[in-house]
Amino acid sequence: MASSPCGSGNFDSGLEIKTRSVEQTLVPLVSQITTLINHKDKPKKSERTQQAIQRVGQAVSVAVGRFVGVGEAIAVENEELKEEMGMACFEARRAGDAIAKLTDVGMPVAPLVDGRKTVFSNRTGMVKAARMLLSSVTKVLVLADRIVIKQIITSRNKVLLTLEQLERVSTFQEFVQIFSQFGNQMVEFAHLTGDRQNDLKDENKKARMAAARAVLEKCTMMLLTASKTCLRHPDCESARINKDAVFHRMRFALEQVMEIVTDARPCGETKVLPLSIYTGIKDFKSNVEGLREGLYSLPQQALSDQLEAVVERTEDFTDSAYTSHEHREGILQLCQLARQDTDRLIAAWREALSLNAKEVTEEMELSILKTCQSVHELRRELHKVAVGRAADLLKLHAEHLPLRALKASGGEGNLEAVAEYACTLGEQKEQLVETCRLLCHVSGTEPLEITCIHAEETFHVTGPQIISAAQTLALHPSSKIAKENLDVFCEAWESQLCDMGVLLREINDVFEGRRGDKRAYLSLPRPGKHSANLKTVKAVKLDTEEQSTIAKLGLELRLLTSDVDTEVEKWEDQEQDIVRQGQSMSSMAYSMYLFTRGEGLLKTTMDLFHQAEVLSEEGLQLCSSLHTLSTLLMDEEKVVVLSEMEKLMGLCQQLQMGVRTPVQGKTATFQKVDSSIQNTRAIMTVVTYLLPVCNKLVRKYKSERSSLDSPQSWRDRQLSTPVKDGALSGKNSNGFGVKSLEKHMANLTFLESK
Question: Which residues form a coiled coil (predicted)?
Answer without folding.
Answer: none
